[in-house]
């Protein structure tokens, strides 16, 4: 390869990087500081809303949050996602559905966790990438593109949030992510929270001092 | 004589053995009986080691137990009743009829107790690594919603004495319009 070809290769590579960066800036919700608040075109009732139920404590908190909502029962297209084998979440969900008398669909998917407890930094990056790919396959089979995704921080949130962010980055998705950090996180975000902080459209924490550490987050006190 | 009962919950998934041990201790039982409590109900968790531990501690207390309505139940020589069960989907009704709750630091159990406005002592499991459960217990103790205890029996007994004379602050109800507003705006 001659000098000219190398220069062309380097230049095109740089152009691609710059284009990707610009696209990223436009896609990242956390960088939209001067967003004009207008009411959305489609009301929430007509939107496709997806809720992820994680393990034990996370499911408990999510059900508490949703059971107080007046809007959730009015949503026509409400989907719950649970990890296959998580029977406790299904019991909680069944109870919630019976009590609120809502119409909803539930999908049990085999969802990989982004990381194992106690895993090192590098290997946790590798397993995160793996789990994103796996989730990608699972969700492309599911063929649901939610307008709104609500998660509250189980390990399974991370690949799912990145999957829908990736679709947005590629211009083929428009899922808005609402991330609600667990009440148990008082002084710092969970690893899931840190990883989803920049790609979430609304990032809610439940303690004021945590909000002060993360300026893009919002705090309205205890929500559960 | 009042029929006051104590509910001990260790959480459903990981057995908090130390909490079962210190509450099924003769020192603990005579102490709470002197305070006027007549009954102890223990949720020892779904793991088999919880039930084994519970049964062996009853034996150590010389209590003959039998199975009544899925509860392992027995009574001490002094008429103090102890029952135990692994797991229930309706923990709230048991909490509702209890006068004191002694719980592990799980968010779910803490919230269930506080939402029912029950006096709550949270026992910290120091064996758990990466203990952010301690943070929430600290925070809620600072704002006087509960009393925190170590897993030493002497500390727990002190905290039980303390909670008799403490007026705890009830946890403010969550504002559910918050989630509705977020959903409407997005």
From TrEMBL, chain A:
<dbReference type="GO" id="GO:0043541">
    <property type="term" value="C:UDP-N-acetylglucosamine transferase complex"/>
</dbReference>
<dbReference type="GO" id="GO:0006488">
    <property type="term" value="P:dolichol-linked oligosaccharide biosynthetic process"/>
</dbReference>
<comment type="subunit">
    <text>Heterodimer with ALG13 to form a functional enzyme.</text>
</comment>
<keyword id="KW-0256">Endoplasmic reticulum</keyword>
<dbReference type="Pfam" id="PF08660">
    <property type="entry name" value="Alg14"/>
</dbReference>
<feature type="transmembrane region" description="Helical">
    <location>
        <begin position="6"/>
        <end position="28"/>
    </location>
</feature>
<comment type="function">
    <text>Involved in protein N-glycosylation. Essential for the second step of the dolichol-linked oligosaccharide pathway. Anchors the catalytic subunit ALG13 to the ER.</text>
</comment>
<protein>
    <recommendedName>
        <fullName>UDP-N-acetylglucosamine transferase subunit ALG14</fullName>
    </recommendedName>
</protein>
<keyword id="KW-0808">Transferase</keyword>
<dbReference type="GO" id="GO:0031965">
    <property type="term" value="C:nuclear membrane"/>
</dbReference>
<dbReference type="InterPro" id="IPR013969">
    <property type="entry name" value="Oligosacch_biosynth_Alg14"/>
</dbReference>
<keyword id="KW-0472">Membrane</keyword>
<keyword id="KW-0812">Transmembrane</keyword>
<comment type="similarity">
    <text>Belongs to the ALG14 family.</text>
</comment>
<dbReference type="GO" id="GO:0004577">
    <property type="term" value="F:N-acetylglucosaminyldiphosphodolichol N-acetylglucosaminyltransferase activity"/>
</dbReference>
<keyword id="KW-1133">Transmembrane helix</keyword>
Automatic annotation (TrEMBL), chain B:
<keyword id="KW-0328">Glycosyltransferase</keyword>
<protein>
    <recommendedName>
        <fullName>UDP-N-acetylglucosamine transferase subunit ALG13</fullName>
        <ecNumber>2.4.1.141</ecNumber>
    </recommendedName>
</protein>
<keyword id="KW-0256">Endoplasmic reticulum</keyword>
<dbReference type="GO" id="GO:0004577">
    <property type="term" value="F:N-acetylglucosaminyldiphosphodolichol N-acetylglucosaminyltransferase activity"/>
</dbReference>
<feature type="domain" description="Glycosyl transferase family 28 C-terminal">
    <location>
        <begin position="6"/>
        <end position="164"/>
    </location>
</feature>
<dbReference type="Pfam" id="PF04101">
    <property type="entry name" value="Glyco_tran_28_C"/>
</dbReference>
<comment type="similarity">
    <text>Belongs to the glycosyltransferase 28 family.</text>
</comment>
<comment type="subunit">
    <text>Heterodimer with ALG14 to form a functional enzyme.</text>
</comment>
<dbReference type="GO" id="GO:0006488">
    <property type="term" value="P:dolichol-linked oligosaccharide biosynthetic process"/>
</dbReference>
<comment type="function">
    <text>Involved in protein N-glycosylation. Essential for the second step of the dolichol-linked oligosaccharide pathway.</text>
</comment>
<dbReference type="GO" id="GO:0005783">
    <property type="term" value="C:endoplasmic reticulum"/>
</dbReference>
<dbReference type="InterPro" id="IPR039042">
    <property type="entry name" value="Alg13-like"/>
</dbReference>
<keyword id="KW-0808">Transferase</keyword>
<dbReference type="InterPro" id="IPR007235">
    <property type="entry name" value="Glyco_trans_28_C"/>
</dbReference>
């Amino acid at each position: 390869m001659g000098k000219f070809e190398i220069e062309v290769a380097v230049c095109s590579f740089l152009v691609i990087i710059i284009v990707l960066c610009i696209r990223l800036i436009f896609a990242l919700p956390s960088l939209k500081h001067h967003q004009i608040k207008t009411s959305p075109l489609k009301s929430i009732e007509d939107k496709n809303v997806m809720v992820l139920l994680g393990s034990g404590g996370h499911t408990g908190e999510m059900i508490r949050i949703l059971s107080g909502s007046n809007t959730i029962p009015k949503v026509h297209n409400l989907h719950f996602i649970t990890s296959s084998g998580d029977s406790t979440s299904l019991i909680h969900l069944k109870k919630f559905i019976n009590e609120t008398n809502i119409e909803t669909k539930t999908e049990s998917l085999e969802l990989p966790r982004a990381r194992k407890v106690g895993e090192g930094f590098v290997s946790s990056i590798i397993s995160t990438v793996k789990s994103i790919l796996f989730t990608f396959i699972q969700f492309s089979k599911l063929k649901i593109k939610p307008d709104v995704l609500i998660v509250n921080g189980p390990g399974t949130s991370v690949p799912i949030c990145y999957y829908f962010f990736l679709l947005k980055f590629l211009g083929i998705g428009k899922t808005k992510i609402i991330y609600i950090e667990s009440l148990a996180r008082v002084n710092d975000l969970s690893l899931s929270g840190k990883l989803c902080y920049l790609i979430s459209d609304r990032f809610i924490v439940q303690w004021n001092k945590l909000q002060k550490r993360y300026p893009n987050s919002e705090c309205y006190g205890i929500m559960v | 004589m009042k029929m006051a009962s104590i509910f001990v919950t260790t959480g459903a998934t990981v057995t908090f053995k130390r909490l079962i041990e210190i509450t099924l201790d003769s020192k603990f039982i005579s102490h709470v009986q002197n305070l006027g409590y007549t009954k102890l109900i223990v949720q020892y968790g779904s793991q088999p080691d919880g039930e084994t531990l519970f049964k062996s501690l009853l034996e150590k207390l010389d209590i003959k137990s039998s199975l009544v309505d899925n509860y392992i139940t027995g009574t001490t020589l002094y008429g103090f009743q102890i029952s135990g069960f692994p797991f229930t989907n309706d923990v709230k009704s048991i909490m509702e009829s209890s006068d004191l709750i002694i719980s592990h630091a799980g968010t779910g159990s803490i919230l269930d107790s506080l939402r029912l406005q029950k006096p709550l002592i949270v026992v910290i499991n120091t064996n758990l690594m990466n203990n952010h459960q301690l943070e929430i217990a600290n925070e809620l103790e600072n704002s006087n919603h509960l009393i925190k205890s170590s897993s030493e029996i002497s500390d727990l007994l002190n905290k039980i004495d303390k909670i008799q004379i403490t007026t705890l602050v009830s946890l403010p109800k969550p504002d559910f319009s918050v989630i509705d507003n977020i959903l409407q705006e997005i």
